[in-house]
Backbone:
């Protein structure tokens, strides 16, 4: 692989790294175009569904039965003799659509409490002038009015004039005569006063008297068009109570309030009057009324329909004080406004928009979260970091990537909804919608980055994310909304709940839906910027909450990422380190660390001791000729579930010069991968350290990553990117550009036999295991990194591919330092300049293959296979050849022996075997020199675990 002339002079800049990641993400996105298309179309289909449902509703409303028409009021057989056209009073639904040129007139009423709620003496209202609570048993409690003012005598005169002592009714004109009396009702008002609920409910209408007489209940006929019914009238005594101050009145009204009063009994009072400084020259009155009876739309219909009677009563009382008891300002009737014929308006999108659109927008959250967790689960993030991608470019491009997808998604969402005419979008100011959606999607992306640090499995993250999506919608629609609509619920708690981003989203969408629904119903506009100053509109507080949370969550996400970032090993106080002196990037002798009181006692072999001394010398006199220097590197995994702690790497010292390939041999579980993981930044050493190109792995991994290549044990690849696209991405991270990048990629593909036959442009997910390994090796060498780690690079390769890969590594090691782990002794002999046999977390020997075979292989291996009956004869033969021979293998007549070379001549072995063939049958025999595999097996068997002394 010829990358020497393409070698970058310096690490890739911020813009180069950002460009590399952006290109990779765009390619990745292009491969996912179908998935993205379906994602963007999901709000479109929902908008279409709402539009279709709206059309069906409109058709239902347009039926003749729902429109104004005529009914037959007089028939003869099947023939209609008389028709009545216009509003049919037997069908109240027609009121909303029929033209009403002359609405009916209704007598004015007071809002009075039900008998069971009327004020009585209680422990929280200790006034003795209240009625006895026993009156509630038979419903005879009087109505209570409270009065106060600066002039009590004047106030008592006026209060006495307010309540009549007689009741009269004209049977010839019942409705008009009712207006001359003081009437009240406990029924609740409606949005329209076309039909007064008091005259169309089962509740009685009360006529107020200063004193009720016996037999004071009777019924009167009510006739409206073709509808007639009997209405019960019942006398209600009024108790007029004077208080010394307005604060006393206010206190009694508050304690008897209907909604929110769960700990005490309800004690309702009809009204309160404060005459203030009124006298014969000044008329100045404040009136308290109960606003509990607001309907679901929030309109204060009590104030519109029934409070005027309270104003009229006190005004009449003042006139009578001035001009005598015969003076009266007649309040004849209350009537609805005339109106033309109108269509039924029922905007389904506005009614259901808060819930459904919450789900639509929240669908983006699992997309971002699972993408981030996938990179974490597959170790792709750390793989990019190990090849030089900094945190800044990663955050900028990844955040911008999700933001672009979210903006496109939301634009399609609003445009689709507007094009098909959903009032939810068209009636509300688009600039408010843009600001609201933009702030929320930024908050949502920031939240995905923060929560991604809590998950390590994509499936778990996906399930929990979608549970959160649907759970948020259901809780918001069926719980949070009730709190918002309840005017008695403290607004402070609403704000606390809106700190949860899902509820803040729902509240904003709820305000949009309410504005569009009421605007469409009343023929007004939807939400505008001026409406945000309305105290009942929660959009302003939602925008503030989401904006502040966006900044806080984004900062927290970046902070947590830096603390938990693999290979960074930063403490939670990492931001305070900017005030500390930066650690030196040159070789330094680390402080000796001991774990508890344990001391490791070892018998260090000469070659290991020599390597340790070499490291000590390099630490005192550093030189850049050595690319890697490990000083007493140690890794201990804590014990779990009652198991003792595991010593994966023990006090490892190693010096590796530039241009050398060092092979690590060892059985499974010896600690080779743990050592590699410490060197590439996946795990933190327990003690000791290592220097790569003069940079300390404990403090400067980001600097090491810019000159490092890694071929991990498991292939870390994007399955939908091709081999060429992988190399282009990692080549850009190594600061390769233009023709240098193109040539380096082509040479890399050719060197690992992935160039021809269209393999280079085939998705990595469709590669075989061997092809993936070759691509991983090519990635580790692209850009000419100064240090390369290869963890079992030839695993899964066929013999031809393995030989080709060895040639690639042999060419690459000329100007690189390579650490290679393998289980293939042949591979170790071909590639490695030096070998270290690693057992139980430490080196047992270090040297080149010839040295190791000479040091540990001073024997021949003699093998002979014969029948079981002649095994003793074989043993006697071997003892004659070498008295110090050692049996190392025995099974079913086949035996192997080690013969010391200084005791045996090869010619004598051949002669002895020929003689033996004449004495007993020999099926096979052999004499071999010691192989590297024999050395490995011998060293591994002889190695003993370290003992510890407390």
Residues:
């Amino acid at each position: 692989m010829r990358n020497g002339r393409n070698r970058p002079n310096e690490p890739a800049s911020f813009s180069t790294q950002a460009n590399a990641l952006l290109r990779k993400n765009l390619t990745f996105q292009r491969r996912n175009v179908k998935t993205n298309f379906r994602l963007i179309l999901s709000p479109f289909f929902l908008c279409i569904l709402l539009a279709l449902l709206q059309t069906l509703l409109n058709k239902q409303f347009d039926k003749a039965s729902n429109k104004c028409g005529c009914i037959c009021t007089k028939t003869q057989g099947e023939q209609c003799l008389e028709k009545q056209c216009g509003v049919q009073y037997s069908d109240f639904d027609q009121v909303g659509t029929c033209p009403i040129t002359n609405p009916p007139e209704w007598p004015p009423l007071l809002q009075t409490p039900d008998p069971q709620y009327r004020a009585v003496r209680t422990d929280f209202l200790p006034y003795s002038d209240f009625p006895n609570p026993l009156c509630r048993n038979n419903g005879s409690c009087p109505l209570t009015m409270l009065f106060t003012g600066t002039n009590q005598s004047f106030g008592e005169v006026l209060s006495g004039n307010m309540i009549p002592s007689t009741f009269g009714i004209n049977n010839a004109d019942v409705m008009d005569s009712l207006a001359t009396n003081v009437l009240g009702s406990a029924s609740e008002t409606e949005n329209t006063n076309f039909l007064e609920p008091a005259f169309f409910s089962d509740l009685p209408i009360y006529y107020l008297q200063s004193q009720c007489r016996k037999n004071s209940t009777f019924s009167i006929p009510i006739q409206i068009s073709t509808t007639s019914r009997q209405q019960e009238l019942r006398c209600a005594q009024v108790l007029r109570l004077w208080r010394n101050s307005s604060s006393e009145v206010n206190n009694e009204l508050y304690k008897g309030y209907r909604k929110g009063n769960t700990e005490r009994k309800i004690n309702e009072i009809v009204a309160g009057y404060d005459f203030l400084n009124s006298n014969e020259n000044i008329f100045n009155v404040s009136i308290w009324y109960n606003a509990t009876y607001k309907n679901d739309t929030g309109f204060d219909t009590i104030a519109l329909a029934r409070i005027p009677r309270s104003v009229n009563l006190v005004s009449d009382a003042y006139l009578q004080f001035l001009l005598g008891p015969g003076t009266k300002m007649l309040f004849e009737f209350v009537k609805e406004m005339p109106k033309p014929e109108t269509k039924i308006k029922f905007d389904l999108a506005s009614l259901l928009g808060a819930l459904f659109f919450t789900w639509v927008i929240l669908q983006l959250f699992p997309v971002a979260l699972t993408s981030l967790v996938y990179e974490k689960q597959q170790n792709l993030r750390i793989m990019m970091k190990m090849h030089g991608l900094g945190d800044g470019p990663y955050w900028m491009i990844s955040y911008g990537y999700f933001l672009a997808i979210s903006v496109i998604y939301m634009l399609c969402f609003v445009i689709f909804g507007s094009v098909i005419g959903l009032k939810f979008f068209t009636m509300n100011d688009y600039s408010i919608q843009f600001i609201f959606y933009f702030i929320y999607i930024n908050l949502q992306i920031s939240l995905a980055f923060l929560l991604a640090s809590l998950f390590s499995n994509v499936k778990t993250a996906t399930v929990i994310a979608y549970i959160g999506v649907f759970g948020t919608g259901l809780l918001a629609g069926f719980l949070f909304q009730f709190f918002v609509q309840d005017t008695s619920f403290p607004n402070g708690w609403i704000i606390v709940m809106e700190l949860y981003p899902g509820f803040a989203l729902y509240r904003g969408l709820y305000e949009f839906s309410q504005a569009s629904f009421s605007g469409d119903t009343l023929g007004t506009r939807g939400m505008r910027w001026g409406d945000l100053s309305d105290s009942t509109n929660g959009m302003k507080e939602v925008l503030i909450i989401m904006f502040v949370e966006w900044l806080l969550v984004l900062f927290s996400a970046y902070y947590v990422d830096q603390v938990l970032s693999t290979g960074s090993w930063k403490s939670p106080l990492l931001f305070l380190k900017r005030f500390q002196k930066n650690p030196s990037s040159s070789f330094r002798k680390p402080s000796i660390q001991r774990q508890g009181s344990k001391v490791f006692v070892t018998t260090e072999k000469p070659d290991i001791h020599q390597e340790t001394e070499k490291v000590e010398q390099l630490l005192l006199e550093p030189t850049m000729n050595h690319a890697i220097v490990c000083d007493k590197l140690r890794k201990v995994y804590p014990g779990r579930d009652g198991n003792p702690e595991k010593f994966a790497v023990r006090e490892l010292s190693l010096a590796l010069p530039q241009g050398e390939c060092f092979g690590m041999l060892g059985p499974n579980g010896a600690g080779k991968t743990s050592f590699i993981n410490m060197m590439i930044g996946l795990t933190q050493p327990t003690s000791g350290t290592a220097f790569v190109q003069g940079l300390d792995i404990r403090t400067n991994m980001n600097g090491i990553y810019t000159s490092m290549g890694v071929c991990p044990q498991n292939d870390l690849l994007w399955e939908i990117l091709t081999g060429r696209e992988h190399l282009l991405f990692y080549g850009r991270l190594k600061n390769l550009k233009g023709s240098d990048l193109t040539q380096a990629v082509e040479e890399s593909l050719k060197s690992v036999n992935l160039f021809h036959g269209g393999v280079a442009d085939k998705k990595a997910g469709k590669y075989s295991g061997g092809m993936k390994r070759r691509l991983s090796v090519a990635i580790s060498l692209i850009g000419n990194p100064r240090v390369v780690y290869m963890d079992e690079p030839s695993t899964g390769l066929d013999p031809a591919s393995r030989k080709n890969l060895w040639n690639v590594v042999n060419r690459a090691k000329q100007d690189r330092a390579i650490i290679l782990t393998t289980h293939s002794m042949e591979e170790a002999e071909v590639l490695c300049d030096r070998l270290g046999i690693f057992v139980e977390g430490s080196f047992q020997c270090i040297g080149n293959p010839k040295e190791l075979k000479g040091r540990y292989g001073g024997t021949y291996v003699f093998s002979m296979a014969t029948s079981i009956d002649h095994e003793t004869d074989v043993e006697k033969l071997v003892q004659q050849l070498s008295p110090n021979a050692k049996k190392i293998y025995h099974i079913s007549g086949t035996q192997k022996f080690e013969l010391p070379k200084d005791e045996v001549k090869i010619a004598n072995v051949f002669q002895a075997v020929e003689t033996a063939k004449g004495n007993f049958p020999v099926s096979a025999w052999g004499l071999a020199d010691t192989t590297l595999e024999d050395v490995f097996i011998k060293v591994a068997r002889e190695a003993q675990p370290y003992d510890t002394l407390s």
Summary: Residues 1-9, 578-586, 588-602, 946-950 have pLDDT under 50 and may be disordered. Residues 602 and 946 are 7 Å apart (CA to CA). The first strand starts at residue 69 and ends at 76. DSSP finds 29 helices and 28 strands in the chain.
